[in-house]
Amino acid sequence: MDVRGARGRCALMAVVREFRLPDLGEGLTEAEVVRWLVSVGDVVAVDQPVVEVETAKAMVEVPCPYGGVVTARFGEEGAELPVGAPLLTVAVGEPLPTVPGEAEGPARAAGAAEGPTPGGSGNVLVGYGTQAPAPRRRRVRTTVAGVQKPQVETAPVAPAPAARAVISPLVRRIARERGLDLARVRGSGPDGLILRADVERAATEPLDGRETALRGAGSPVAERHREPGAQRIPLRGVRGAVAEKLTRSRREIPDATCWVDADATELLAARRAMNAGEGPKVSLLALLARICTSALAEYPELNATVDTAAQEIVRLPGVHLGFAAQTARGLVVPVVRDAHTRSAVALSTEMARLTEAARTGTLSPAELTGGTFTLNNYGVFGVDGSTPIINYPEAAMLGVGRIAPKPWVREGELAVRQVVQLSFTFDHRVCDGGTAGGFLRYVADCVERPAVLLRSL
């Protein structure tokens, strides 16, 4: 066929690749879409971030492994998607000229996308500004005045059988606790999958008479939860993860707490002397962290976890020290890896870096998991004492109250000293009171006489 002089028309012969929400590690099973970074029709490069999601651990930008044109997005901002759910589809390929003179179906002429429904893949002809798949076409030939001409017939596409959406146990539990009938909840996930956000939204919608009866007397949802003006705040993201972990800690760990007052005057003096010269400064929290690693070297049975399935106590070789940090998104616990190998200066530098990352929401999941022991400095809130809840699945946590001037008997004389209350919560399956008391007394001795630390250097 002579195509010279024909008007040039060009389409994009491509393969549609579906990009699904990847496994973000550390046992994470879902993520909330916070902000889309691309729109349908945008051209994306390989490994370009396409969406910002919030997991139970951190805010994460998810890069796309394909380069091409975005043909569809799945999940509105605020929706929760399970790992493996479709995020977007990308047409990957090179521009190729269309053969002029062939009849084209109306969908193709309008620049529509022909291809699989979300979840599939295949060779497609992609135009501009369209998302919906075109109907399938079959080519036939007819004879007009002895000349065969190609024609296109549009055949209806048989609907694919609906996939059965598997609702996660977590969503079922939330629905059960709120007295919701899942058969009456409309799912917004792939294939109509009911997500956690759908259940929480349905729980706040006005009820008709029949649903009121279904969720009325005998329902775990108390009537006071529906009082006019009551505000509902979904337990998801970081707040939901904290709630889940603390609940599990209380449910599974038989914890006990002991506490002691300590004179921190000498510790504060030692810190002033350390920071008087040139070089990096050492924070008080870093000194307390250094004391913890020294104490765990003396009492290694507390750097452990319990394997309930195997009925075994697992003592861990390295100290990965978590410390509580309050942020605008809630309480997070960044982890200092191999804290037992770091000096006070190195601990101070790393803790400052992690604290800043926590406040800006840029901590990675790896920086929020894997801790073996936690230090909780609740004294920054101006309180003297607390009974910490163990950061599951760890075996112990040291709590530090505020350091305040108080009357103290020193060498038989009453004096005003800088006093701090230390509280220690431990898993009673891992050790008895003697070990816990010995650990806490060692920490208190280091606080009162920092020179004790010289023995572990």
Characterization of this structure:
The chain is of the alpha+beta class and 457 residues long. The chain has three domains: 10-137, OB fold (Dihydrolipoamide Acetyltransferase, E2P) (Beta Barrel); 169-234, Irregular (Dihydrolipoamide Transferase), CATH 4.10.320.10; 254-456, Chloramphenicol Acetyltransferase (2-Layer Sandwich). 22% of the residues lie in helices and 29% in strands. It contains nine helices and 22 strands. The strands form six sheets. Strands 12, 15, 18, 19, 20, 21 and 22 form a seven-stranded mixed sheet that branches. The chain has a five-stranded antiparallel sheet with strand order 3-6-8-1-9, with no helix packed on it. It is elongated and about 80 Å long. The N and C termini lie far apart (86 Å). The model is unreliable at 1-12, 95-164 and 209-219 (pLDDT under 50).
Tell me what the CATH architecture of the largest domain is: 2-Layer Sandwich
What is the CATH topology of the largest domain?
Chloramphenicol Acetyltransferase
Helical proportion? 10-25%
- Can you tell me the number of structural domains? 3
**Main sheet properties:** 7 strands, mixed
Strand content: 25-35%
CATH superfamily of the largest domain, by name, is Chloramphenicol acetyltransferase-like domain
So how many helices? 9
